[in-house]
Every structure is written in structure tokens, then in C-alpha cells.
Amino acid sequence: MKLIYTLPVLAILLATAMSSIFVVDVREKVLVLQFGEVKQVVDEPGLYFKAPFIQDVFRYDDRILGLVTDPQEITFADSRRLVVDAFARWRIVDLQKFRRAVGMGGIDAARDNLSKIVNPEVRDVLGSVPLQSVLSEDRVALMNKIRDNARAKAATLGVDVIDVRLTRTDLPQQNLNATYSRMQAERQRDATDEIARGNEAAQTLRAEADRQAVEITSEASKQAEIIRGQADAKRSGIYAAAYGKDPEFFAFTRSLTAYATAFQPGNTAFVLSPQGEFFQYLGAQGAVPASPTSGDKPQATGNGSTVAGGSAPVAP
To answer: Strand 159-170 to strand 21-24: parallel, antiparallel, or no bridges (unpaired)?
Structure first.
């Protein structure tokens, strides 16, 4: 019977002992509250005791925490604009102030309150300088100023702002579109200039080639005329020499040439007197026939020609 009553008592005592003991990790800080009032602040790791059932333990992260702010559009002193967001590092340094500032919200509520401090500081500090300062070595000094201002205001939250960095500085979307359009226009203008210069160079080369072609053609024509003139002079010299050696043979060859030129297919048929000089080589053994009698009259041929003598050969 005693064992039956002893076991519940031991269980109650064990539960009471367990509820009065808590362990603090090296990565956290602890507040011990009794009816909402802070009774103990524990910021060192180890084994600790509290009053069972009436005291509660609240644990908070003691590590360095991060905060990413929402992107915001900043208008700089030179009226230029950028979309900027920042990244802050912070840590809880005063648990009692932290508890009073965020209540039961904990770390999430602290991030919201800290964002409301860092974002205005980013806007105020960057809005007081020209854009070039953010894009130069002065950026580090600006970030340090934002950190110091945020640190002073965040002290009421029981936190320390360790560092603030600007993570992105981009143009607003409408400015990006305008910038891209301007870049495209500049590239298009450059391409147009290059094409114009290429066309100009092509025209210059084409004109030079045409000029050289005309000069070469003119020179070739001149040389051809000179050679042709020299050939004609040589030919005339050969004819003159041949005529000087045998005038009768020269006259004979010239007559044959005249016959070949005059008697061609398709020409109008005609009849001439055989006593003319034109037919002097067509008579019997080169003799010229007798003159026609005065009684002979011209006779018409079938093709519209006339016969000047009595009997004469008809050209084909």
C-alpha cells in the first residue's frame, strides 16, 4: 500500500524538479518572467533553475541576424532615381528593452520594427547626395552613415545594428526601358554611320575602277588605232610597191575585186556595154569588142534594166 502512494508522490516531485531546471545554449539568451515581470536575464550558457510553475522561460537568438529591406525608389540630389535595397546585420544586446519593444512578437516583430528604421535612413542619406556618390568610393562612407543613424535609433529596441550594405542599385523599370531604347538608337545610329561610310568607300572604289577602266579602254583604243594606222600604211606601201613593179597585174587584181563587190547575190541585174573599161578583162583574151552600131537601140530586160548595146553579157 505504501508503494502505491509513494510512486505518485515521486512522480510529482520529479515533475516539479524538471520544471525548475532549464538549459541555456551558447547560441541563445534567456529571459525568466514571473507573471509578465522579468525576474532573471541569462546570457551565458549553462544549467539554471527557476521557480516551477510560476516562472516562464523565453529564449531569444543570440547570433548575428540578417535583415533584407524591401526595394525602394530613391530620388538623389541631382534628381536622378534608382531602385535601392539594403542588407543589415543586427544582434540583440538588451533583452529587457527588446522584450518591452516587441512583446510576444519576438524576432519577426523586431525585423519589422528594424525595417521601419533602416528604410527611412537609406532614403534620407542617399537622397542628400548625387547619384555619382553612390557609384564611387563614397559609397562606403554613405553605408557607414546609414548604419550609425540606424544604430542610434535601434537602441530603443535593445538591438545593435552591426552593418548596413547596399545590395542593389538599379534604374527604375521605366528608366531601364528608356535607357535600352536610347542604347538601341545609338547602336542603330552607329550602324547607319558605318553603312554610310561603307557605301561611300564602295562608291569611291567603284568610281576609281570605272576611271581606270576608261583609261585602260582609251589607251587600248589609241594603241589599236595606231596599230591599225600602221597596218594600213604598210598595206598601202605593199600595194604601191606591187603597183610599181607590175601596174597591169595591179589593175587586174583591182578589177577582180570590183567584180566580186559588184556581182553579189540579191543585187539588181544590169547590162553594160562591153566596150566600157569595167569589162576590159572579160573579153576574149582581154580584147575589147567593137563598138555597137549607131542603129542599135537600147532594149529593156525582164527585170527593169536596159541593154545599151546589141549583145553584151548580162550580170547575174
So the answer is: unpaired
* Vertex 90 angle, CA 84 and 96, to 5°: 135
Size (the chain), residues: 316
10 Å CB burial of residue 154 (0-12, 13-18, 19+) is buried
pLDDT score, position 103: 84
Residue ranges of E strands in 262-316: 299-300, 306-307
| Beta-bridge partner residues of 65 | 90
Tens-place pLDDT, residues 107-154: 899 999 999 999 999 999 998 999 888 888 888 999 999 999 999 999
- Indicate whether 30 pLDDT > 60: yes
Question: 138-154 and 106-127 are packed helices; what angle lies between their axes, rounded to 10 degrees?
Answer: 140
Closest C-alpha among 246, 46, 76 to residue 172:
76
β partners of residue 57: 32
- Supply the pTM of this predicted model: 0.52
Under DSSP, is residue 80 helix (H, G, I), strand (E, B) or coil?
Answer: coil
